[in-house]
Input
Amino acid sequence: MADIAKIVDQLSELTVLEAAELATALEEKWGVSAAAAVAVAGAPAAGGGEAAEEKDEFDVVLTGDGGKKIQVIKEVRAITGLGLTEAKAMVEGAPKTVKEGVNKAEAEEIKGKIEAAGGTVELK
Output
């Protein structure tokens, strides 16, 4: 367990950009997507009666670039900390989730920034 604690400490020291690069490298190495794992882990149990509760976490999904791809790529990079290649792939591959599990205020802020750049966004 001591080795795991060391790894966690080392990962905590990474910058956002380094963490994004690490995630991409691990996805390529193991052929999996961290977003897919989060989606599976976060899926509600069948028959959950909690659907009536007010939603307090949102996923911000980019649905299109509105013909202003460069501006939207710049905004996605600023929001996510992704590199140019990853942000470009996200914008070109829309619909793609930009941020997961954010509160309503942050989700609305991100939506506003991307829409101001010319993109289209859905909150789920």
Notes: Strands lie at 58-64, 96-102, 120-123. The first helix runs from residue 2 to 12. DSSP finds six helices and three strands in the chain.
